[in-house]
Every structure is written in structure tokens, then in C-alpha cells.
Amino acid sequence: MPETPYENYLHADKILSYQKKEDELICPGERDFQGVQQESEFIWTRINLLLKNTSKNLVSGDLNGATRLLEQAAALWSSLTAKCEELLWRLWPNDFLKIRKVIGTGGSTADSPRYRESERLAQSIWGPFADQLKKSSITVLQLLKTEDHDEMRALLKAMMWYDYRVQEFNIAHLYLVFGEIGDRTLGLKGGTTEYLIKRQSQFLFPELWDSINELSKGPATK
Ligand code: HEM
């Protein structure tokens, strides 16, 4: 078949060649599993670019721009959550056992450099955000109490929202693990859901959530 500009631009031949051929699939669900994992890697590259640009906007003082990009990155996590839900719904556990044998020990998404980078990039947003707070001579706690500094407050909300969307993915992923291998079986990297639950309870922006605790200790201000 002649290559169209559309196919050329997408490198369609190349990317599709990385999918197993239909006659190589060990069960129909393997197309879904491999597809979801491949799509996830693409999505992490999109999230990571948005996060890099969020930081750039923050450093240059464009708070609205930073908020908009962070919200877009958060929305992409929802699409990853939907993928976990889709697999939980469709992938039969006995089929996943067959797929696991083919993946082999050590083949865990925990080692995805793009996933790891997404975590590092999100955490690195806090530094330039704190610098912006300093410039305005305000602390997070004071920001939580004030009705001024609209742009900074919108950004703080976007950070809560981003953290939540990542945690939401983690919860969907946990249920996927329960539904495919159970809560006591070791993963391919040797972790159980206990490891995942511990990871799940780690906030990306701990100072933000700490400040909300601080706020709740004191009396409400008008
Ligand atoms: C289909 C069944 C799946 C099972 C049974 C499963 C199981 C696990 C387990 C047990 C871990 C802990 C580390 C290990 O020992 O491997 C893990 C980590 C991870 N999985 Fe999955 N997973 C599945 C699918 C997925 C999918 C579809 C995604 C992405 C959309 C994903 C993303 C991740 C990530 C990002 C980690 C690292 C978590 C962290 O260290 O913070 N997994 N998975």
C-alpha cells in the first residue's frame, strides 16, 4: 500500500511494527494489555512536556500559563486512569497470568523512565512556586487564608487537582492489580500491593497538604 502523508507523519509503519502480530498474541487480551502499556508511555511523554513548560512559565512569572498547563497535565492522568479501568473490566485474570509469563521477571512499569520522570518533574514545580510566593512575601498558609492573589490561588488549586488525578490513577491501578493478580502476589519487580499502597499515600506536593492541616488547626478567618 502506498504511504500517505498521514502515515508518513505518524511513522505509522514503525509504531505499529512494535505491536505483536495477531497470530503472535497468546490471548486476545494481550492486544489490550500491550496496547494500553504502549499508549501509556506516549501519554507520559505528553504529561512530561506539559510539566516542563509549567515550570518554565512559573520561573518567568506567567502564573496563569502555569495553571493552564498543569490542569491539562492533570487531565491526561485521567486518561491513564481510564486505561486501568478498561483493563480491569476487560482483561481476564487467567489470561493475564499467561501474559505475565511472556513478560518475564523484572518487566514492570515501575521501571518506566517516562513514569519516573513525570514524578520528578511534578515535584520540581514546588521550588519555582515557592519562589513566587517569596516574591509576593506570602506563605502558603497565608495564601490559604487570603482572598487576594487570585493567580497564585488558582495555581495552588491546580496543584491539588494534579496531585489528586495522580492519586486517582494509583487507586485505579491498585484495583487493577487486585483484579489481575490479587493483593498478596508479588509483582514482576517483587512488590505487592503493600508497596503500592505506601507509594499511593505519598503526596507530590507535601508542603501544600501540610499547610491545609496547619490552616485547620487555627480559627477560620473572615
Ligand atoms: C494488568 C495488570 C497489571 C498488574 C498486575 C500490575 C501490577 C503492578 C505491581 C505489582 C507493581 C509494583 C511493582 C512490581 O513489583 O512490579 C506495579 C507498578 C506499577 N504499575 Fe502496574 N500493573 C498492571 C498494569 C499497569 C498498567 C496498565 C499501568 C499503566 C497504565 C501500570 C503502571 C504502573 C506503574 C506506573 C507502576 C509503578 C508505581 C510506583 O512505583 O509508583 N501498571 N504494577
The geometry reads as globular
Q: State the helical fraction.
A: over 70%
Written as H for each helix and E for each strand, in order along the chain, the element string is HHHHHHHHHHH
Beta-strand level of the residues, as a percent range? under 5%
Largest sheet: none
> What ligand species are in this complex?
protoporphyrin IX containing FE
- Total strands: the figure is 0
The gyration radius over C-alpha positions equals 21 Å
For this entry, give a set of tags.
single chain, 222 residues, mainly alpha, Methane Monooxygenase Hydroxylase, Chain G, domain 1, globular, binds protoporphyrin IX containing FE
Polypeptide structure, described:
There is one protein chain. 73% of the residues lie in helices and 0% in strands. It is mainly α. Helix 3 (29-60) runs antiparallel to helix 4 and helix 3 (29-60) runs parallel beside helix 6 (113-123). The N and C termini lie far apart (69 Å). 18% of the residues are buried. Bound molecules: protoporphyrin IX containing FE. Residues 33, 36-37, 40, 80, 83-84, 87, 91, 96, 108-110, 115, 173, 176-177, 180-181, 187-191, 195-196, 199 line the site of protoporphyrin IX containing FE.
